[in-house]
Amino acid sequence: MNTDFDLLLAGAGHSHLGVLRLWASRERPMGRIGLVSAEPHAWYSAMMPGLLAEHYQTRQCRVGLPKLCAAAGVEFVQGTLVALLPDTPELLLATGETLRSTWLSLNLGSLPRLPEQSGDGMELLSVKPFADFIRRWQQWQETPEPVAILGGGAAGVELALAMAGREPELHLFSADDLLTGHQPRLRRIALKHLQRAGVQVHEQSPIQAVHGNTLIGDGQIRWRGRRLVVATGPYPLEWLRESGLRLDSRGFIEVTPALQSRSHPHVFASGDCASLPGAARNGVHAVRQADVLATNLGRAAIGQPLRHYHPQTHSLALLADGHGGALLSWASLTAEGKLLGTWKDHIDRSFMRRHGADD
Ligand SMILES: Cc1cc2nc3c(=O)[nH]c(=O)nc-3n(C[C@H](O)[C@H](O)[C@H](O)COP(=O)(O)OP(=O)(O)OC[C@H]3O[C@@H](n4cnc5c(N)ncnc54)[C@H](O)[C@@H]3O)c2cc1C
């Protein structure tokens, strides 16, 4: 394969999905463009809890990348990136192959941080990458056992509500109070739903390590079991530290409001892997950045002024309650109910339809 591109999109995150969709419906930048993705599908995080709760089927929650790329006039390259040289720029794949391009756009997401583990008495299942998570979770369903979930943020709460009733026991561990950063009322509503669903919630219970079949927090055994779901995101991808790109103190790529790397202007970054003041790490910003990114990738190549991404102060969060309803959090507003679940379902299905998923 000729490995030289004019533009490479690395990672099939929410922003690149939007870029491909826009290019499929309007003119794309000139030159040879490729998308590199570890897997042939892009998964939509907002529908993961609904998939676990069996409200959706797998095909409704993921987008086939070869088809979307073909519609956008972009070559699809399946491969896992293991290193990046931003000066050239060059991408090194796990196969040993190197791809080169003039312009590069990174939309690689983030990963939860796994606790330190000794022994093999407990299986740790990270919520990301989604494809591995779903495949393993479905295998677990064949022999149900008690499960603990690590992470008391929106993802951990939604996953607990979706998994409840499918396992003989479900425990949710949160290092601080549940849903920190949201209104206290949202926490109270979530606790009510979790209690009703039979989930045992452990707040202010940070877990530092897994020893054998035990969870250890502050030197004490907090839980015994063999299955742990880790939803403690978002943490940066470790290998980016070696890249030479300018990173923030946590290890995310520092970008300008034009989504351009602060150290390497021919590299763009968006979504969870980027660090932009005011843009929290969630799917809302990753999706919204697509429009600005699509424009800027075209303009940068021909030396035109770039657009800026202006993060909204508040992001709408709709948490599935596991029974077709949803909990809403937006600024100081919180609410719950079936109608919100119907609305969330409509938003999510419309998003997937726009990007070519099977409905
Ligand atoms: C269970 C759960 C539910 C969530 N629900 C919501 C929600 O309802 N609303 C919301 O706003 N946020 C939600 N989030 C957060 C949301 O998932 C993230 O903020 C969002 O996915 C970030 O999107 P992104 O575009 O940065 O990257 P992602 O969508 O995470 O995609 C990253 C892509 O990069 C690829 N990739 C990564 N590493 C490599 C590599 N080395 N080589 C090649 N490809 C690679 C991955 O395969 C993936 O395709 C949820 C998170 C979880 C865990």
From the 3D coordinates, which CATH architecture of the largest domain would you assign? 3-Layer(bba) Sandwich
| Helical percentage | 25-40%
- So, the CATH homologous superfamily of the largest domain? FAD/NAD(P)-binding domain
Enter the CATH topology name of the largest domain: FAD/NAD(P)-binding domain
Count of helical regions: 8
Summed up, the domain count is: 2
Verbal overview:
The chain is an alpha/beta fold and 359 residues long. The protein has 2 domains: 4-38 and 79-110 and 234-301, FAD/NAD(P)-binding domain, CATH 3.50.50; 116-233, FAD/NAD(P)-binding domain, CATH 3.50.50. Helices cover 26% and strands 26% of the residues. The protein is built from 8 helices and 23 strands. Strands 1, 2, 5, 6, 7, 8 and 19 form a 7-stranded mixed sheet that branches. Strands 10-17-11-12-13 form a 5-stranded parallel sheet, with helices on one face. Strands 9-14-15-16 form a 4-stranded mixed sheet, with no helix packed on it. Strand 14 (209-211) and strand 15 form a beta hairpin. It is globular and about 55 Å long. The chain starts with a strand and ends in a 5-residue tail after the last helix. The relative contact order is 0.17. The model has no long low-confidence stretch (mean pLDDT 95). Flavin-adenine dinucleotide binds next to helix 1, strand 2, helix 5 and helix 7. Flavin-adenine dinucleotide (FAD) is lined by residues 11-15, 36-39, 42, 45-46, 48, 80-81, 107-109, 127-129, 155, 158-159, 231, 233, 237, 271-273, 281-284, 286.
